[in-house]
């Protein structure tokens, strides 16, 4: 009964904004038929409507050498962009009148790219997709879906980018036999990609009969099959936001700020917090731990009074927090002494020592840090912001330029270029969100030259689920949560949110909490300034934290 009530509450919580009626648990009776104009999947019987993006398509590349050590001089997404812009080599051009379409291709994770199709006739767009599929390094094209997540103002709106692969995460009832599971797979022409690790009766499957948006219909049909607990497409998600705060004031866009000099000037003006049992050079700037240095003795404090709490605690010593996030540079000077080292677990992964990376394809990777291949991708864009002259920068990053010019039509080329430089650098720094999250929790450099976390003596288990570009899927997130619980951590921290509701992931979190009653799972409520709590923070039993 607890699961039933939780499911009903959960469905109502996440779907209130879409004005969907909450129905009883007999959701298996829901008609699953859908057309191209009505795309959806189900979450505890409720339709989650989706829209097909007709001006964008995702491309999946064929597997290459080990992605961590590979340092190719030409990433596949750039190769595809060049091939499409110059007419695709030996393939025919899109039209006899113009073969040089300005097609923009952006990477998403390890082996996915997003292609912005040029405006034109339906036949031209079909021709481009056919040309994409003819490239020897392309595995397949995938549809891109969207779901508006809110409209808090005309200037700030987020639109989720959702790639639909030919993958479904399916969970079977516990009392189903192996032969019964195989029969379900056989009848629906499914093959197992792999069992989902650190859980029971859950599998990632692929259809041998359908693809594209038909995967939605197939998943919906599977939810009606006796013995199937849940079946949800393994969406690859990424969210892009219009950074309105960066568009408001041209004076806030310096070309190359001298951050080191500014930092030293600020520190020289601030006193160290008095009577703190733990100190660090940058502690005066950490107003969230102790705001007295920045606000003085007369203004009301706006911090969590961490320095006072440290006097009456051990600063988190003896606890382990799993940080499930993006890139985690566990050898950072402020983190390295507090990184949890995996012991000899029965299900220890190959090469596992300091956490695990679930963001890469297949079985994952033993290192949550930036790989050589990822470094080459980010390094090229970072160097663009310093090396490219204004004219070339505006041309290469035209999408950013268009956003800025829409808000500031009278902006000079130099001002637009400065905006692009800041935006690209901010996006690159955003890839290290996991390192930042780990530092907020447990930073504590041996030489006291850095910052302090709120629990500077706790240990961190690094768990990566986001690939470059913010790519994440529920199957990997579920494995990451199960992995962290299996390593006997005390807290799982997920500074992530806004994902599509996923019934299978919800049930897995219920299982983890049932099996580990002392475990605390924390997730982000969301940063969009919207009413309600984002997924997975809204799952009963998960602690929701707002920024």
Shape: globular
Question: How much is the average pLDDT?
Answer: 86
Strand pairing plus helix content: what structural class? alpha+beta
Query: Approximately how much helix is present in the residues?
Result: 25-40%
What amount of the residues lies in strands? 15-25%
Main beta sheet? 7 strands, antiparallel
Give the CATH architecture of the domain at 252-384 and 411-496: 3-Layer(aba) Sandwich
Q: Can you tell me the residue ranges where pLDDT is under 50 for at least 5 consecutive residues?
A: 16-32, 89-99, 151-157, 241-246
- The number of helical segments is 15
Distance between the termini: 33 Å
CATH domain fold name of the domain at 252-384 and 411-496: Rossmann fold
- Say how many strands there are: 21
Write down the Rg. Answer: 25 Å
Under CATH at level 1, the class of the domain at 252-384 and 411-496 stands as Alpha Beta
Q: What is the CATH superfamily of the domain at 252-384 and 411-496?
A: Peptidase S8/S53 domain
Tell me what you see in this structure.
With 547 residues, this protein is of the alpha+beta class. Among the domains are: 56-142, 2-Layer Sandwich (Alpha-Beta Plaits); 252-384 and 411-496, Peptidase S8/S53 domain (Rossmann fold, 3-Layer(aba) Sandwich). It is 30% helix and 19% strand. It has 15 helices and 21 strands. The strands form four sheets. Strands 1, 2, 7, 8, 9, 14 and 18 form a seven-stranded antiparallel beta sheet that branches. A six-stranded parallel beta sheet has the order 16-17-15-19-20-21, with helices on both faces. It has a four-stranded antiparallel beta sheet with strand order 4-5-3-6, covered by helices on one side. Strand 19, helix 15 and strand 20 form a beta-alpha-beta unit. Helix 9 packs antiparallel against helix 12, helix 10 crosses helix 12 (413-430) and helix 11 packs across helix 12. The longest helix has 18 residues, at 413-430. It is globular, with a radius of gyration of 25 Å. 37% of the residues are buried. Mean pLDDT is 86; it is low at 16-32, 89-99, 151-157 and 241-246.
């Amino acid at each position: 009964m607890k699961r039933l009530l939780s499911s009903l509450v959960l469905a109502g919580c996440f779907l209130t904004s879409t004005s969907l009626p909450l129905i009883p648990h007999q959701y298996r009776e829901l008609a699953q038929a859908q057309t191209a104009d009505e795309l959806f999947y189900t979450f505890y019987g409720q339709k989650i409507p989706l829209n097909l993006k007709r001006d964008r398509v995702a491309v999946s590349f064929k597997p290459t050498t080990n992605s961590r050590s590979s340092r190719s001089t030409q990433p596949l997404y750039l190769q595809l962009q060049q091939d499409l812009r110059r007419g695709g080599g030996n393939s025919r051009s899109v039209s006899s009148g113009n073969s040089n379409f300005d097609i923009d291709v952006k990477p998403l994770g390890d082996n996915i790219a997003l292609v912005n199709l040029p405006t034109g006739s339906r036949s031209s767009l079909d021709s481009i997709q056919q040309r994409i599929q003819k490239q020897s390094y392309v595995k397949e094209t995938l549809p891109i879906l969207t779901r508006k997540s809110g409209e808090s103002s005309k200037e700030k709106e987020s639109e989720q980018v959702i790639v639909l692969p030919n993958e479904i995460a399916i969970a079977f009832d516990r009392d189903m036999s192996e032969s019964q599971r195989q029969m379900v797979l056989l009848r629906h022409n499914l093959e197992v990609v792999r069992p989902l690790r650190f859980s029971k009766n859950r599998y990632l499957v692929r259809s041998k009969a359908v693809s594209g948006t038909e995967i939605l219909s197939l998943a919906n049909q599977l939810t009606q099959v006796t013995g199937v607990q849940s079946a949800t497409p393994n969406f690859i998600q990424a969210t892009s936001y219009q950074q309105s705060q960066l568009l408001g004031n041209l004076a806030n866009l310096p070309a190359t700020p001298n951050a080191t000099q500014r930092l030293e000037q600020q520190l020289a003006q601030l006193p160290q917090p008095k009577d703190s049992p733990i100190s660090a050079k940058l502690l005066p700037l950490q107003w969230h731990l102790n705001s007295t240095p920045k606000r003085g003795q007369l203004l009301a404090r706006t911090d969590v009074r961490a320095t006072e709490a440290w006097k009456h605690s051990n600063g988190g010593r003896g606890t382990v927090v799993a940080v499930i996030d993006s890139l985690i540079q566990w050898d950072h000077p402020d983190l390295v002494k507090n990184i949890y080292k995996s012991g000899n677990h029965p299900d220890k992964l190959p090469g596992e020592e300091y956490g695990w990376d679930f963001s890469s394809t297949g079985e994952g990777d033993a290192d949550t840090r930036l790989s050589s291949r990822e470094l080459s991708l980010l390094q090229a864009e970072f160097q663009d912001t310093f090396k490219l002259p204004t004219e070339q920068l505006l041309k290469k990053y035209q999408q950013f330029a268009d956003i800025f010019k829409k808000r500031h039509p009278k902006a000079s080329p130099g001002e637009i270029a400065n905006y692009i430089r800041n935006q690209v650098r901010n996006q690159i720094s955003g890839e290290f969100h996991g390192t930042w999250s780990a530092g907020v929790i447990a930073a504590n450099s041996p030489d006291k030259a850095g910052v302090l976390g709120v629990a500077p003596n706790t240990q961190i288990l690094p768990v990566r689920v986001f690939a470059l570009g913010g790519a994440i899927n529920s199957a990997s997130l579920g494995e990451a949560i199960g992995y962290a619980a299996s390593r006997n951590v005390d807290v799982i921290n997920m500074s992530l949110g806004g994902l599509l509701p996923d019934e299978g992931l919800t049930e897995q979190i219920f299982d983890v909490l049932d099996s580990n009653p002392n475990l605390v799972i924390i997730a982000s409520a969301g940063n969009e300034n919207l009413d309600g709590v984002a997924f997975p923070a809204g799952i009963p039993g998960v602690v929701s934290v707002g920024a």
